[in-house]
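[Q] Does anyone have a clean structure-token version of this?
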Amino acid sequence: MKVIQCDNQFQVLTGNSIFMHDELPAEVYIVKFAKMTGIFLETTETFAVTEKIYGEQTDKITKILNTFSNVDRNLGVLFSGTKGMGKSMSMRQLAKLAVEKGYPVLIINQNFDGIVEFLQKLNQSVVVLFDEFEKVFRMYNDDDSECCTQDKLLSLFDGTLVSAKKLFIMSCNEEQRISKYMINRPGHI
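[A] Here you go.
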């Protein structure tokens, strides 16, 4: 057992290997949530690209990463279209190239309260992937759940609440289920 203290909070861990990092290492992480511990990151190998890539996908992915490297603000990109056209494959390829360039990649495929605050805490440039964004994040919350909605993400995407620039990549099958306040606006998508 190991006990970690951060300010006045203590956390009991059962693992024996504990390392401290000043920044997230350049790897691919899945953002997860546990009721007792809150939000945490878990490394994953399942996002690796093993298939052969055809067409101009690599050029487009390289252009996105180069643009992100050259701007001093957040950047948002939306991959939209019908199922099977390569959106998820493009995201996996982008994740691989981002790690090669030294950026940590966070995959968000669940919706839970506190995700915006968690991303705001990250004081380094990261790539954040939202696969099937419109299915995970609804436009509006029509019940009493505490899940994050698309409108709560607007200020995060704008960069007004973020301490370091972030590249937000989203895929969607149904673009009409994406908030009109996000699409084609500077600072959003």
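[Q] Thanks! Anything notable?
[A] The mean pLDDT is 83.
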